[in-house]
Write a structure and sequence with these properties.
The structure is a single chain. The protein has twelve helices and 18 strands. It is an alpha+beta fold. Among the domains are: about 150 residues, Jelly Rolls (Sandwich); about 100 residues, Arc Repressor Mutant, subunit A (Orthogonal Bundle). The strands form four sheets. Strands 1, 2, 3, 4, 5 and 6 form a six-stranded antiparallel sheet that branches. Strands 7-8-15-10-13 form a five-stranded antiparallel sheet. Helix 8 runs antiparallel to helix 9. The radius of gyration is 22 Å and the shape is globular.
């Protein structure tokens, strides 16, 4: 049984404001309606009603609210401390939390692609061309993904050119089942690809998996996952968030589950339950960080903002002042649609707390120094905005 409080808010009052810290609490609306306004995302508004959960991402991350919550009719909320999550053993409530986090992720991922399209001047209404998707993954070096896209869409892309390309691709060994439901995926293996349905949830026992989405003739990096990470959880909601392709970046041992197995696991294992909520909250935070990064003009600050989100994710599960990300600098640049030019390379070298390895992986040699450097660039950017716009902002 969890502890909670009931709180009433009158119409036109404010539940919380953007930039305010959450004090470790989140809310479930018992009656009434609340509207969220996110100033950083073109004043994007989103309405919540009875049964909806609000504020859980900021509470879990212990980060300031990214939206202002305004009460639009008399509202009663149930206030819950995030530490109470460990005590939840009700399947319906757990699924409500997961569905809320997936819904929140869906909302912000769509906004992320909206801003990517806006600032890269791409028409997001153009119908997806599967041949372009195939070629993009092949050109990126993800041949197994390209091969699976071809096999799953032969009725749409069975041209002479594509047949010639696929005939030269050497197939990777199929995943071998080690124990029931646990498979060994060889490096380069495509676990699932974005033009087809995926009905499973995956937990990485060991290894590294990259998740990508096709955008404007390129696969852009959604996330790089490693040991204990879970992905492919869309089936809890019965729909995909945004089409993705998952590829084993190195030999990986992965547990493959259906919805029923997954639900049993999170109810039986408190540690997994808490881990999953933290992980999903951190992914929402990461997506919001990328939206902010896309909207920034300064190249260094764009990069730092993406990396800040990735660091916060890592720090959810470990205490350290040094992090070697599985993400390459190319992964990070793709998230904000920047090409690796000589200018970008020079700008990156100016970031003292970051090192790029010979394999192009990003290393944060001193996290405390990174955050100080990040704050300096944030202040410079804010000062420049004040100079440019004066009283208008």
């Amino acid at each position: 049984m969890i502890n909670y409080n009931k709180i009433n808010f009158k119409k036109s009052s404010t539940l919380f404001i953007s930039g305010q810290y959450p004090d470790g609490k989140f809310y479930i609306i018992n009656k009434g309606k609340v509207i969220f306004e996110s100033y950083f995302a073109d004043n994007f508004k989103y309405e919540h009603k009875k049964g909806d959960i609000i504020g859980i991402v900021s509470a879990v991350m212990d980060e300031p609210y990214f939206s202002t919550s305004k009460v639009i009719e008399d509202t009663e909320v149930i206030e819950i401390d995030v530490r109470e999550i460990e005590k939840i053993d009700n399947v319906e409530l757990m699924n409500k939390i997961y569905k809320h986090l997936i819904n929140t992720m869906e909302v912000w991922i769509k906004k992320y692609y909206y801003f990517l399209s806006k600032y890269s001047k791409v028409d997001s209404t153009v119908k997806l061309n599967i041949i372009d998707v195939f070629k993009a993954y092949k050109d990126k070096g993800f041949s197994d993904a390209a091969l699976k896209i071809y096999k799953n869409n032969t009725n749409k892309i069975n041209t002479k050119e594509i047949k010639t390309i696929t005939s030269k691709i050497e197939p990777i060994e199929s995943p071998q089942e080690i124990t029931k439901g646990v498979f060994n995926f060889k490096k380069g293996s495509c676990i699932f690809e974005e033009t087809s349905q995926n009905n499973y949830i995956y937990m990485i026992k060991s290894g590294v998996v990259g998740v990508y989405s096709y955008f404007n003739h390129k696969p852009i990096t959604r996330m790089i996952y490693s040991d204990n990470d879970i992905f492919g959880y869309k089936d809890l909601l019965g729909k995909k968030i945004i089409a993705t392709t998952a590829i084993a970046i190195e030999d990986s041992i992965i547990k493959v589950m259906d919805k029923k197995e997954f639900e049993s696991m999170i109810i039986e294992d408190k540690a997994v339950r808490v881990y999953l909520i933290k992980m999903m909250s951190a992914r929402v935070y990461n997506t919001i960080a990328r939206i902010k990064a896309v909207n920034i003009n300064n190249v260094i600050l764009k990069i730092l903002t993406v990396i800040e989100g990735l660091i916060k994710l890592e720090l959810m599960f470990k205490r350290t002042n040094y992090i070697s990300l599985f993400h390459t600098i190319d992964d990070i640049l793709s998230m904000v649609f920047i090409d690796y030019t000589d200018y970008v390379e020079r700008e990156i070298k100016r970031i003292k707390s970051i090192k790029i390895t010979n394999e192009k992986n990003v290393v944060i040699s001193n996290i405390n120094s990174f955050f100080k450097e990040y704050e300096i660039y944030l202040k410079r950017n804010s000062d420049k905005m004040n100079e440019d716009f004066g009283d208008e902002i």
